[in-house]
């Protein structure tokens, strides 16, 4: 279900992008989700990983705040 909130938070690190969609409603309405994209040569960017809470509930808005440090990613709800 498209939400229009893709890119609410964005972080770039070492050639990868962490992008969130706080209103994504796959497991519950407005649960939120984050994606990691990596460059894919001349074709642009390719999704390499999806982050979603295993205990997501309605209105978590996961991805409202994010942080990246080294290889660690923090996605707040």
Number of strands: 6
Q: Approximately how much helix is present in the residues?
A: under 10%
How would a crystallographer describe the biggest sheet? Answer: 4 strands, antiparallel
Q: Shape from CA axes?
A: globular
Task: Give the neighbour order of strands across the main sheet.
Answer: 1-2-3-4
What is the structure about, briefly put?
The chain has strands at 6-13, 16-21, 33-39, 45-51, 65-69, 72-76.
Essential attributes:
four-stranded antiparallel beta sheet, 0% helix, mainly beta, 49% strand, 77 residues, two-stranded antiparallel ribbon
Reconstruct the topology from this structure:
Blueprint: E1 6-13, E2 16-21, E3 33-39, E4 45-51, E5 65-69, E6 72-76
Antiparallel strand pairs: 1-2, 2-3, 3-4, 5-6
């Amino acid at each position: 279900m498209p939400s229009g909130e893709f890119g609410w938070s964005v972080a770039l690190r070492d050639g990868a992008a962490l992008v969130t969609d706080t209103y994504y409603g796959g497991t519950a309405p407005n649960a939120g989700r984050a994606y990691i994209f990596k460059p894919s040569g001349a074709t642009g960017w390719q999704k390499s990983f999806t982050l979603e809470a295993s205990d997501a509930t309605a209105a978590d808005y996961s991805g409202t705040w994010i942080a990246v440090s080294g290889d660690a990613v923090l996605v707040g709800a």
